[in-house]
C-alpha cells in the first residue's frame, strides 16, 4: 500500500493581523506624538505664564521700592539741607553767645589767677617767665575776641565753601540716588543668553529686586547718616565754641596734662575735625556725582 499523503501546510495568517497591528499600533504612536506635541506646548505655556507673573511681581516690587527709596531720599535730602542751614547759623545762635559769655567770665577769673602766678614766677626769676608773660598778653586779647574770630574767619568761610560744593554737585535726591543705582542688572545679563526657563526667570527676578532694594537701602542709610552727623557737627561746634575761653586759657600752660593730653590740644583737634567735616563730606559727594556722570 502506498504511504498516506502528507497534510497540506497551514495557510498563511490572514491579512486581518496586519490591519489589527496597524489599528493597534497607530493610536499608540499618535498618542505619543500628540503627548510630545502638547507637552512642548504646555511647557511653552507654563514658561510664558511664569515669565509674565514674575515680570508682574518684579515690576510691582520695583515700583514700590523705587517709591519708598525716592520718598526716604527726599526726606534725607531735606534733613541734610536743613542741617547745612543750621550749621551756617552757629555764629548767630543766642544760646552759643550766652554760653560763651558765661564761660568767658569764668576764663577771665582764671586769667587773673594765671597773671598772679606769672608775676610770682617773674619774681622768682624762672627761666620761662618771659614766655609765659607773652602768652598772658596773647591769651588776654584772644579770649575776649575769640568768638568773633572763630565765627567770622573760620566757620563762615568753611560753610561758604561747603555751600559752593553743594550747589556745584546739584545736591538733591535724584543726583544722590544716581550714585546708588545698581551697576549690574541680572535681567540684562540673562538677555544675552538663550531664553531662560520659568525657574531661571524667577531667580533672575528675585536678584533684580534684591539688587535694587540693597542699593536703595544703602543710599538712604548713607544720606540719613550724613544728615545726623551734620546735626551732631552743629552741637559739637556749639559746645566747643562755648568752651573755647577755657581751652585758650590752658594754652598758657602747655605742659599741663589731663587724661588725653593738654586741654588746648584736645580742643583744637576736636574743633578742626568738626569744622572740616562739612566740606569734606560735600567734596566726596561732588566727586561721586561727577564720576557717575562720566
Structure description:
It is a single chain. This protein is mostly helical. It is built from 8 helices and no strands. The longest helix is centred in the N-terminal third of the chain and has 72 residues, at 16-87. 21% of the residues are buried.
Brief sketch in words of this structure:
This protein has 294 residues and is mostly helical.
Biggest sheet, in brief? none
Secondary structure: helix percent: over 70%
As residue ranges, the low-confidence spans are 16-26
Shape: elongated
> Averaged pLDDT, please?
79
Beta-strand level of the residues, as a percent range? under 5%
Q: What is the radius of gyration?
A: 42 Å
Distance between the first and last residues' Cα: 119 Å
Task: Output the structural class.
Answer: mainly alpha
What's the tally of helices?
8
Number of strands: 0
Secondary-structure element series? HHHHHHHH
Task: Give keywords.
single chain, about 290 residues, mainly alpha, 8 helices, about 0% strand
Question: What is the fold's blueprint, element by element?
Answer:
Blueprint: H1 16-87, H2 94-123, H3 129-168, H4 173-179, H5 186-190, H6 198-242, H7 244-249, H8 263-293
Amino acid at each position: 500500500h502506498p504511504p498516506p499523503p502528507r497534510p497540506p501546510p497551514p495557510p498563511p495568517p490572514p491579512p486581518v493581523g496586519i490591519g489589527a497591528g496597524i489599528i493597534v499600533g497607530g493610536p499608540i504612536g499618535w498618542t505619543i506624538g500628540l503627548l510630545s506635541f502638547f507637552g512642548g506646548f504646555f511647557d511653552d505655556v507654563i514658561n510664558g505664564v511664569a515669565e509674565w507673573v514674575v515680570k508682574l511681581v518684579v515690576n510691582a516690587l520695583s515700583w514700590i521700592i523705587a517709591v519708598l527709596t525716592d520718598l526716604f531720599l527726599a526726606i534725607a535730602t531735606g534733613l541734610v539741607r536743613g542741617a547745612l542751614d543750621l550749621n551756617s547759623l552757629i555764629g548767630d545762635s543766642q544760646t552759643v553767645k550766652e554760653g560763651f559769655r558765661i564761660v568767658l567770665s569764668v576764663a577771665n577769673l582764671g586769667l587773673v589767677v594765671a597773671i598772679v602766678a606769672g608775676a610770682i614766677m617773674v619774681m622768682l626769676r624762672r627761666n620761662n617767665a618771659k614766655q609765659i608773660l607773652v602768652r598772658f598778653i596773647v591769651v588776654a586779647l584772644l579770649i575776649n575776641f575769640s568768638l568773633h574770630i572763630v565765627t567770622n574767619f573760620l566757620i563762615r568761610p568753611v560753610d561758604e565753601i561747603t555751600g559752593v560744593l553743594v550747589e556745584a554737585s546739584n545736591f538733591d535726591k535724584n543726583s544722590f540716588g544716581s550714585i546708588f543705582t545698581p551697576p549690574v542688572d541680572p535681567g540684562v545679563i540673562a538677555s544675552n543668553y538663550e531664553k531662560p526657563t520659568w525657574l531661571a526667570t524667577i531667580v533672575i527676578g528675585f536678584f533684580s529686586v534684591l539688587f535694587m532694594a540693597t542699593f536703595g537701602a544703602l543710599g538712604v542709610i548713607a544720606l540719613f547718616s550724613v544728615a545726623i552727623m551734620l546735626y551732631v557737627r552743629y552741637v559739637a561746634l556749639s559746645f566747643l565754641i562755648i568752651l573755647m575761653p577755657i581751652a585758650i586759657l590752658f594754652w598758657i600752660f602747655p605742659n599741663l596734662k589731663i587724661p588725653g593730653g593738654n586741654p588746648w590740644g584736645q580742643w583744637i583737634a576736636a574743633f578742626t575735625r568738626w569744622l572740616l567735616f562739612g566740606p569734606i563730606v560735600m567734596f566726596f559727594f561732588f566727586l561721586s556725582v561727577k564720576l557717575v556722570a562720566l
